[in-house]
Amino acid sequence: MTPPAAAAGPSAPAVATPVLEARGVFRFRKADGREVPIVRDVGFALRRGEFATIMGPSGSGKSTLLHLLAGLERPSAGQVLIDGEDLSAGDEEQRAAVRRRRIGFIFQFFHLLPDLTVEENVTLPLRILGQRPQKHGARTADLLALLGIDKLRTRRPAALSGGEMQRVSIARALVAQPSLVLADEPTGNLSSKAGEEVVALLRTVTEKLGTTVLLVTHNPRDAAAGDRVLFLHDGALRQNAELTGGPFDVADVFHRLQELGI
Ligand SMILES: Nc1ncnc2c1ncn2[C@@H]1O[C@H](COP(=O)(O)OP(=O)(O)O)[C@@H](O)[C@H]1O
Ligand SMILES: [Mg+2]
To answer: Domain for residue 3, yes or no?
Structure first.
């Protein structure tokens, strides 16, 4: 007997919706009186719990692309979907709401508030969402422990090393349990040892918490930590590669860069 074809609708078998999907995304900017493409026809999707990296040289459009993916800027054409929700459909207020609920950010220069303690910096996104940090005390404590900063909770950023500051900003990015974390060159301001630790922690986070992480870098070593590496050049996605040798296969990343002539 042939089973009836699955009906589309609430009872249909769940096809996993990508956490992040870019469809034909373009971004033009005015330069010398003409519109220049900075991001060109970028399309890809990321699954839940995937650790992906975008590898591209300086000026290739990585930060611009990340802003588009976060809804901080609107694409000139194309769509960005977060958990299936079209970011380009709403106005700025709706995009901000999606951002606050679903996306965490990690920046090269940390962007911690100097007058707040580590714990206050970490829980700031909860307060912005109108939630009482005390309600999430146990989970926040677990998060600080996972990131190895539980002993620093009462310190202020000025009393932290760069690597510690970046761990604090990772905790802050995760505290509101986003589906997606976007990290723009998070090791760019760190020693290579502290940078390696931060990248390894981001991998741990995807494994332990199931968060999807997208890390942008111009460093092949960081890029190689991804299960998936997206190679960007002149604003275009040149290759979307699932690493054959598994994560941390730097030789594979170098080989692909060479093949692509990047
Ligand atoms: N606000 C802006 N106005 C005009 N051009 C910009 C702006 N931001 C970035 N660009 C240009 O867009 C290109 C990509 O920049 P960016 O996204 O910052 O690249 P990356 O992060 O890979 O270094 C560069 O040529 C840069 O000069
Ligand atoms: Mg950049």
So the answer is: no
